[in-house]
User: Fold NADH-ubiquinone oxidoreductase chain 1 from Paramunida evexa.
Amino acid sequence: YSLLGSLRAVAQTISYEVSLALVLLSFIFLVGGFGLELFSLYQNKVWFIMIGSPLALVWLASCLAETNRTPFDFAEGESELVSGFNTEYSSGGFALIFMAEYASILLMSMLFSLLFLGG
Assistant:
């Protein structure tokens, strides 16, 4: 059953990364470069959340799905397993999985702040 849970997690991750990449590419085309300082410079007058509020909603929904938060946590399958797809791991691997999940949440929050709120 752990294999089924991990397959669901991988499918969900791949499907929502497409929308994250499209939102990021739209702002890269708007700014004209990949540098994070360009995003801050272009948002001196108006934040991008005012201009692209639908993109911000897509980004937030995709971030929730990417980090397996509450509405999108069906990949864990807790109704059929004890703890989801990570039941095969113990001690070190188990701790690394949870640390990586919370690091992903911090990264997505930082990118939202940089992309939509001017840094």
Remarks:
- The chain has a mean pLDDT of 81.
